[in-house]
């Protein structure tokens, strides 16, 4: 298939492009404006296989349309978005413009130019504060921050568009907490100001930070810190290939992507200390917009697509992230 990947220079996008290139089945075009993504990731990907990279923003609708005119895409995998929950609570418009409006522009072009398959990076943040420990795809979606709402609105748009256009199928992938780096050390999380727990812990182990914070230890959880479902980036990347193959042959579908297992922030920090040695941790205030517990029920993804995780091990996830962190050259 000829596939357009938006945000392919970013953390998750680059790992998915790698998996697609390794499959040797597709022709790939990556667009990214490098506002968060890294040219180094693109250069690293060029060692894996051939693809076209275009430094372009989704806002540039005219240029984007030219791309659709000159390439007959059969699928789009849409990663490009802003991703920081806390920032979305203070700069909501930034999130609605990029994560919702720009996504709508892309979906509009996909429909205008007959693109049949659309894989969308959604998030567990669309569930908000679930009533149950595990959430399935049919659990209520009540996001508690602008990030989650900006993604949920895009889900609604995709669903309505697919109802109206029977030739258009989506796979909505609701990721839980993504972490780690590629096993061969080629790719990982690049940006220094990341807010992801495991990234921050490995930055602290490797001396890039002198300490790290636990944001709140008074949540209603077993040790008072937030509980999340951490998935290795390579298992997540594989899920995109399975989901795309599934919608090509079947119908639109929504999939949670996680392991179905929760770790508290303190448990992750303890595991990180076992992997990389001791480091300084302090307790800070809660951040706005952080729900207490988010764990995936990902049975549907396993049953319908045949996906099964290969790296479900918190210490393996942390050690891959640490190996990447220690090899980053400033
Ligand atoms: N990282 C996670 O834990 C997580 C969890 C749930 C969902 N997601 C979703 O996965 C997707 C990818 O996340 P990520 O962690 O790889 O983030 P990232 O910031 O590393 O990647 C996003 C990429 O999109 C690019 N981009 C952003 N806006 C753009 C625009 N207007 N035009 C062109 N390029 C643009 C950035 O430069 C970056 O390379 C996002 O849609 C995010 O909402 C991520």
UniProtKB/TrEMBL annotation:
| Cofactor (UniProt) | NAD(+)
Give one GO molecular function term.
UDP-glucose 4-epimerase activity
Q: Which UniProt keywords apply?
A: Carbohydrate metabolism, Isomerase, NAD
Kindly list the biological process annotations in GO that this record carries. galactose catabolic process via UDP-galactose, Leloir pathway
Catalytic activity reported: UDP-alpha-D-glucose = UDP-alpha-D-galactose
Q: Which InterPro entries match?
A: Epimerase_deHydtase, NAD(P)-bd_dom_sf, UDP_G4E
- Pathway per the UniProt entry: Carbohydrate metabolism; galactose metabolism
Q: Name one Pfam family in it.
A: Epimerase
EC numbers on record: 5.1.3.2
Oligomer and partners: Homodimer.
Protein family according to the UniProt entry: Belongs to the NAD(P)-dependent epimerase/dehydratase family.
Q: What is this protein called?
A: UDP-glucose 4-epimerase
- The encoding gene: galE
